[in-house]
Amino acid sequence: MINKEVFNWAGLALERMAARGVFLTAGSEKPNTMTMGWGSISVYWGRPVFIAPVRKSRYTFELLEKCGDFTLSVPAEANDFIEQLKLCGSRSGRDCDKYAAAGLELNPSKEIEVPVIKGCGAYFECRTIYTEDIMDKISVRDICNACGGEIYFGNEKKTCEVFVCNVTSNSKEVTEGTLFVCVKGERTDGHKYIQQAAAQGACCILISEDVDYKDIPEGCYFIKTSDTLKAFQKVAAWYRRRYDIPVIGVSGSVGKTTTKEMIACALSAGKNVVKTIGNRNSQLGVALMMFEINKDTEIAVIEMGISEKGEMDRLTHIAAPNTAVVTNIGVSHIANLGSRENICREKLCITHGFENKGVLYLCGNDDMLKNVTADSPYISKTDRIVFYGSAPCCDVRAYNIDNDGEKTSFDVDINNKNSIHV
User: Fold this and answer.
1) Which of 132-141, 225-234, 282-291 bottoms out in mean pLDDT, i.e. has the lowest?
2) I need a labelling partner for 272 at 20 to 30 A (CA). Which of 113, 209, 220, 327 fits?
3) How far is C-alpha 84 from the chain's CA centre?
4) Are 133 and 179 in contact (CB under 8 A)?
5) Chain mean pLDDT for the chain
6) What is the per-residue DSSP string for 72-85?
7) Each residue of 218-271: pLDDT tens digit?
8) Which carries the bigger pLDDT value, residue 133 or residue 68?
9) What are the distances in angstroms from CA 316 to CA 308, 321, 347?
10) Alpha-carbon distance 75 to 126, whole Å?
C-alpha cells in the first residue's frame, strides 16, 4: 500500500493540473469507474478526487468502493505512473498558501496525517490502468519528410512501418511510441536524455548534433536536423494541416487564458474542442498543442504568446487559424519589443497565418486596437474586423453591466440590431 505519500503527490499535482484543466470525471462508459480526459473540469461528489498527470493519455481507475474514505493503491506495474505523479510536484513559495488552504503537505517524503480537502477524505483504490492515444499516428517517414531531416540511426527502409503516437520534449513524459524532441534550452539540453528516452520506449528522436547511439534498441530512429525546434515546428504545421477544422487563435498582453477558456467553454456546448493546455503558448508549446488534435476534433482554440519580434509570425503559421482574437495591447515584453506600437504590430501578425480570408476580433476598448483597419500595417488576409467590448464603437457591445459579487450579467448589442441578455 502506498497511500499517504502517493496521495500527497496527487494533492500537489491537483493544484498544478487544475490550471491545465485535467480532472478525473465521473460518468464513463463502465460502471463504478472514473475517466480522465484533457479539458474536463469536474469534481466527484463535490470535491476534487485525483489527478493523473501523464500527458497524452487517458486513464481509467476502477473504484472498489462508492462511499466513505478511499485508500489509494496502485499495482506494482504502475511504478512509472507513480514517478510521473512525483515529477508534477511543485514546491514553489507562491503555491504554499494554496496548498495549505487545501490541507496539503508540501513535503511528500515526510510522513503526514491523512490530508483533507474541504473537510472530506478523498482516498480511493484503483486497480486497472490503461492508456488511450490522443494524437492520430504518424510514421517516422512522415516526420522526416515534414521536417526535411535525414535518418541518422535506424533502418531507413522501414521508416514507413514505425509509428509515433505521442510527442514530447520532456524525457520524463516519454512512453512507448513517443517522438522525443531534443530541444536545447536555457537550463538543459535534451540531447543529454537520449538514452533515457530510448529506454522508456521512444521510437523516434529528433536531434541536431552527433550523438552516441550505442545500446539504442532496435526500432528507435534518430532524425537529424540543423535545429530541432524549427524542425519540430515544421512537423507540427504539417500535422495541423491534415485536419480541415476551424482554429481560433487568441493573443493579447493580458487576458489570453481567460478569453481562451471562455471561448472553449462556449463552443464545447456543441463541439469537440481542443484548447491550449496550461502555458503551452510558446514557440514549443504551440507546436506541441497541434498534436492534441485528432480525427474527432471539430474546432481548436489556441493561445499564442510572444516576447520578441518575429515570434507571432512563426506561431500563426504553425496553427493556421481561421479566426483570431486580440484582447489588448499592454506593456508586457516592452523591453524586447521597444514600444506598445511594436507590440501591437507583432500581435496583429496573427493574421499572417490565415490561409484564406479570416475574421479578426479586436477589443474596441483598447486605445490602440480601436484604430486598426484592414489597411493597417501587418494586417493581411483579413476579410473583416469585428470590434467587441463596451465602447460605443464596438460591433458587439456589452451594456447594462451588473456585478452583484457572485455573478455578472449584461446585455449585448450586435451591430445595433439584435440585443440579448447574458
Assistant:
1) 132-141
2) 327
3) 17
4) no
5) 74
6) ----GGGHHHHHHH
7) 899 999 999 999 999 999 999 999 999 999 999 999 999 999 999 999 999 899
8) 133
9) 14, 7, 10
10) 8
Q: Which long-range contacts (CB under 8 A, 24 or more apart) does 74-81 make?
A: 74/2, 74/6, 74/126, 74/129, 75/127, 75/129, 78/129, 80/200, 81/52, 81/54, 81/129
Nearest to 232 by CA among 156, 172, 285: 285
From edge to edge, which strands make up the β-sheet containing 323-326? 273-275, 299-303, 247-251, 323-326, 358-363, 382-389, 396-403, 408-414, 418-421
pTM, two decimal places = 0.71
Closest CA to 183 of 228, 232, 231, 237: 228
Tell me the three cell numbers of residue 332. Answer: 508586457
Contact assessment for residue 318 and residue 247, using Cβ atoms and an 8 Å cutoff: no
CB atoms within 10 A of CB 189: 12
Cβ-contact 25, 50 below 8 angstroms: no
From its phi and psi, is residue 119 left (phi > 0), alpha (psi between -120 and 50) or beta?
left
DSSP string, 79-137: HHHHHHHHHT----GGGHHHHHHTT--S-TTS--PPP-BTTB--------------SPP
CA distance 278 to 280: 6
Q: For 76-89, b where at least 16 C-beta lie within 10 A, e where not — what string?
A: eeeeebbebbbebb
Phi, psi of 155 (to 5 degrees): -80, 105
Provide the 3-class DSSP secondary structure of residue 297: coil
Grid cell 517522438 is found at: 179
Helix (H, G, I), strand (E, B) or coil at 205: strand
- Paired with 420 in beta bridges are 412
CB 36 within 8 A of CB 52: yes
Compute the radius of gyration of the chain from its Cα atoms.
Answer: 23
